[in-house]
Amino acid sequence: MQVVASLSLKGGVGKTTVALGLAGAAQQHGLRTLVVDLDPQANATIALDVGPTSATVADVLDEPRLSVLRAAIAPSAWGEGLDVMVGAEQAERHNHPEPGPAQVGRLRRALQRLDRLDADSVDGLDDEAPDPYRLVVVDCPPSLGQLTRSALAAADRAVLVTDPTMFAVSGVQRAFDAVQTERQRSNPDLQPLGVLINRVRPRNAEHDFRIAELRELFGPLVLPGVLPDRSAIQQAQGACMPIQRWDTPGAREASTVFTLLLGRVLRSERPRRTPRVATAPPAPN
């Protein structure tokens, strides 16, 4: 199970768009995926058109037991193979500015329990269980409190989302610093997957300047595919449909970028560690 956080420390740059686009690409390619909506605005939950549940991600962060996890996860109306750990404004109560290690680790513990449950199902303990999640996409809030730190403590990779404007460039630098800090604090396996530039307009001098600035700052971390500023992205979200099924030239252009992003995610996946099997010492001569 690969966990990817969609991260920005500036609002309005499209981190939810990236989380939804990546989830849609994974679904299109047959990878069972879970979206964890950590943003108290719950925009990802709304766009994924999830039905009512008896628990939310806020309850999971209160007590990450399996029964609570099951109650907080529901299928998306986008179709088979895509589930959601539903967001709620009550998650804001977990967004402390200076959380302790136990608070930061709750999402990681919940996902580890979910991963173990999936592994047990694959081993035949529950023949009717679905395939395990191949990908978990975490949509973070645009602030560096407990919620975002929880996502980084649980993630294998972080996509740093920005748009080509002055303030957003500053925000992606802070996001990069947050990844490096959390890596030192609690999650040595965490790595930045790359910087994804959103809402790019062709032949715009300011956008060209900021993109060049980002490439100078982050080098090969800046992903080669950029997301164009297309109304199709907002239209698909408003219709609660994946961009991959919105049949316009702008949607196809964006869908290609998300497919490339998915490929980068899968190439970065670490092999699952297998337990070492103890062997008996050789018999004496």
Automatic annotation (TrEMBL):
What range(s) does the CobQ/CobB/MinD/ParA nucleotide binding domain occupy?
A: 7-238
Q: Which InterPro entries match?
A: CobQ/CobB/MinD/ParA_Nub-bd_dom, DNA_Partitioning_ATPase, P-loop_NTPase
Descriptive protein name: ParA family protein
